[in-house]
Amino acid sequence: MVSAAAIETPVRGARIEVRNVSHWFPQRGKGSAPLHVIDELDLSIAPGEFVALLGPSGCGKSTLLRLVAGLEPATAGRLLHDGQPIARPDPSRIVVFQDPTLYPWRTVWDNVALGLQARGILGAQRQRVDEALALVGLAPFARAFPHELSGGMAQRVALARALVNDPALLVLDEPLGKLDSLTRLAMQTELVALWRRAGFSALLVTHDVEEALFMAQRVVVFSDRPARIRRELRVDLPYPRHRGDPALAELRREALALLGLGDSW
Fold it and tell me: Going by C-beta distance under 8 Å and a sequence separation of 6 or more, which residues neighbour residue 122?
C-alpha cells in the first residue's frame, strides 16, 4: 500500500484541452433525432492536475472521458493532448473502469504485463511490471490469480496495469464504484498517493461528491444532458486531506446545491 504522505515527484503529466466540444449519439429508429449529450464544452487540465467531474446520471460525463481517451471522435470541436489532436487511443492516456476486467486465466503479474506485451516491449522492460506491482502494494501477490483477490486488490491490479504504461493521463471512470465503503475510502487515499508520487494528470468521473472533493484539486459540476459546465469548484486544500475538514464540508454543501440536493444538508 502506498503511503498517503508519499513525496511528490516533478509534474510530468499531460496538458489536455477540450475546445468547444459537442457530441451527439445516433438513435435507432427511422426519423429518430440524434441524442445530444455534450454541448459546446470547454475544459482544460494542466499537467499533473487532478480534476473530477460531477453531474447527474446520463449527463455525458463518461462520454467526455471516452472522447478524451480517444476511444471515439467528437462530433464537433477539438480535443488536444499537449497541443496535438486526440484522434485515437494511445498508451499515454490510460482508462481505468469500474470493473477491473482481469483475465481469470492469467496471473496478477501477467495481467499487469498485458499492455507491454501487446506493444512488443515486455522482454526489454519486464522490471516495469514488478515496479508497478510494488507501487500498488501487490508485489507478494504477483503469482496469484484474480479469483484469489479481494475487490480492492483486483482494482489495484487494474491500476498497476495502467501505471505500467507510464501514462501522462489517467482517465478514471467510476473506478471505485463497486467496492464496499471501507475499501473505497482506503482506495481513495491510495489513488491520491499514486497520483502525487507518479506526477500524471488525472481525470475522474464519480457520482460521490465527497470522493471528488477528497481527491481532486478541481471539481467540475455538469448540468443535465446535454452536458454543460455549471461551475468549477477549486479545492485549495493540502494533501493529505482530512475528511472532517470544515472547508470540505462547505464545498460539499455547495456541490450538492448545484446538483439540486441543497435541501439535504
Answer: 113, 116, 129
